[in-house]
Amino acid sequence: MNSRDRLADLSGATVTVTGGFGLVGSRIVHQLRAVGAKPLAVGRLDAYGSSVYSSVFEISPRDPDVIAGDITDAALMDDLVSRSDYVIHAAALADVAECTRNPAAALKANINGTQTVLDAAARHTGTLKRLVFVSSASVYGTGAGSEDAAARFRETDPLTPGSIYANTKLWGEHQTALALGGTGGSYAIVRYFSVYGEPQVVKENSHSWVVAWFAMRAALGLPLHLNGGGWQVRDFVHVDDIAEATLLAAVTESADRSTLNVGTGRATSIRQVADLVRGHYPDARVMATPRPQGDPLGACADTTRMRQVLGWTPQVDIEDGVSRYVEWLKRTPEAIPAWLRAEARAVA
Questions:
Q1: Going by C-beta distance under 8 Å and a sequence separation of 6 or more, which residues neighbour residue 226?
Q2: pTM of the prediction?
Q3: 3-341: which CATH topology?
């Protein structure tokens, strides 16, 4: 059975998606709607300006399948999980820089929130078919190498998280196995590599989401910052591919109790991304800047287990993905935040 046929099995299923107002969560919700599933998207509305959710992410608390709420609300999560066939736990404070600046917020969202979701799932293992915990390649550590010889992370490699965010994700992996493994529940863990793609929107004071950063800055005539010279590498995975892989981890029988990388297996340097963006904005300038604390040197995924278990590979390469993002940004200029436009005006 191919991946499309397996996703079609979700038709009619109820799926709670935490982090439903985020980039990944909203894409998962849209894919669930497309296959006839019944998503219950829950999330907070404080990550972006309110206009982003409805006009850019095309998801709104006015939608009948969307709930504005906090995953630390035990009664809410118990109600949603009790009605669900599957749970995709994607909610997190996922900004590495923000987690470093505000560890208490990271602990509340990524530890307390995850425990609340897991408690609900453990109470309903009799009806819940599977929970998918969204983790991160940051659990492997900082990585090493260059664009010519990058590190390649396997799921069995030692885990040496180098940031508060990565620590919370590793804890979530272990806690998922403890909470559900001991109660007979089914779970899968997916470790995302570098997510990008339309409709990603940058956050102020963040150094994540480099494709969106470079494209938006280039569109405004601002220089592209090459932190640490831009020699870090990333395994860029388009958000549409991320969403599909996550849903496949929910419905693929052999993914039960598995930990899976979700990546392309290809290392791309930050400098290469800058060059791809400058192909669309030839006048864009680059500027060397210091490498922020916690910014990993990077690596790419070993995708062997992902391909074997899910029978799937990503469909969007970085060249096409950057082109798609730039084309989307040109059609959707309102996605550029007001604070970034103000920065451009200030230096004009």
A1: 270, 271, 274, 286, 287, 288, 289
A2: 0.94
A3: Rossmann fold (3.40.50)
